[in-house]
Amino acid sequence: MLSRSDIGPAYARNAAPFLHGPEIEAMTAALMAGQYGHHTETEQFEAELAAFLGVPDVVAVSRCTAALHLALLAAGIGRGDDVVVPAQTFCATVHAIRAVGAVPRFADVDPHTQCVTADTVAAAITDDTRAVLPVHYGGRAVDLRALAPELAEHRITVVEDAAHAFGSRHRDGRLVGTTGALTCFSFGPIKTITSIEGGAIVPRDRREAERLRTLRLLGIRAKQAERIRSTDYLVDGTGLPYHLSAVHAAVGRVQLRHHHIVAERRVTLWRAYARALVDIDNVELIDVDIDYTIPFNAVVRVPDRDVVFARMKEAGIGVGVHYPPNHTQPAFRRWTRHRPLPATEATASELLSLPFHPAMTEHDVTTVTSTLTAILS
Ligand SMILES: Cc1ncc(COP(=O)(O)O)c(C=O)c1O
């Protein structure tokens, strides 16, 4: 078996999202063992995720979109309910709300972090609000503690979209996923750790964990090991095929073991961007609270974003946009009781995601920022 010191340098150089020998070996071993679907490998990944976070249980699923859908179902959110959510998120967050028949109620964001705040969430709550779905944009932990008494009084559930925030901490030191909310992670291809595709939910208690396990496996109750031994299984509720395959779980397990290497690299790169961008006029780096965060991306606000985007592409720099806001998307407009979202609307057309992945070097960061400087001047 490879030791950490054998693998470490490879991760530091190439790092996730690219897969290395150890992941390929783990996938091969799962395939050779005939583990194609949900299997004991999945259950081991769940136990290791729970140990990493320091929580009693974690339920692995096929994607974060599935995690969000199941979390809302498990919390009893459905038709006629309002769910408060930022318009500034990936459309998957809003699709999960629509999938349970609830109505997205868009909240504004802080323009400097692109995250909701206790104030913007409070302003969006209605008498029909049954859940609040904050998104830890860029990996930054959203702190809604100021709202906790109001949420508790009105029995409003908090479901966290932590697709970007695996390994990030709140300012009191607690890891995202350990503060008592139903928390959903993504292990998609460009996430801090990847299982190629995958996700996980941190349930609030044992009953909820059981319900989520049944929901994610077509309503079937029983562990894989028990199913193999038995001639029967029990379908005692609704459910969807949202389980995580053993092959994906095998990749996730290897990635989890190297999380610290990739995390350090992401923090180093983000800090390099912060240093390089500080002197460029009219460019603001979206703040991720770097002392507590494992950053998912490096996003700037720039003037004439579409022109800068095109010029950066022409220069061979792989920029992107996270995200075109959802409240104006045709798919969601009709479900939205629209309200003004001044910060979202003022900043959405300025957002530009700079290249950000752990395989980059600090020299790459300098290339990106000097190209941006040249274009802006
Ligand atoms: C904020 C956010 N939520 C949800 C998702 C959906 O995650 P998945 O691709 O694992 O379904 C993503 C994916 O990138 C995301 O960025």
From TrEMBL:
Any one of the GO BP annotations: polysaccharide biosynthetic process
InterPro entries the UniProt entry points to: DegT/StrS_aminotransferase, PyrdxlP-dep_Trfase, PyrdxlP-dep_Trfase_major, PyrdxlP-dep_Trfase_small
Swiss-Prot/TrEMBL cofactor(s): pyridoxal 5'-phosphate
Ranges in coiled-coil conformation: none
Alphabetical list of Gene3D superfamilies matching this protein: Aspartate Aminotransferase, domain 1, Type I PLP-dependent aspartate aminotransferase-like (Major domain)
Source organism, top-level taxon: Bacteria
An example molecular function term from Gene Ontology annotations: pyridoxal phosphate binding
Keywords in alphabetical order: Pyridoxal phosphate
Keyword Electron transport set for record: no
N6-(pyridoxal phosphate)lysine: residues bearing it: K191
Active site per UniProt: K191
Annotated Pfam families: DegT_DnrJ_EryC1
The family this protein is said to belong to: Belongs to the DegT/DnrJ/EryC1 family.
PANTHER family: DTDP-4-AMINO-4,6-DIDEOXYGALACTOSE TRANSAMINASE, TRANSAMINASE
Protein name stated in the entry: dTDP-4-amino-4,6-dideoxygalactose transaminase
Organism in which the protein naturally occurs: Nocardia bhagyanarayanae
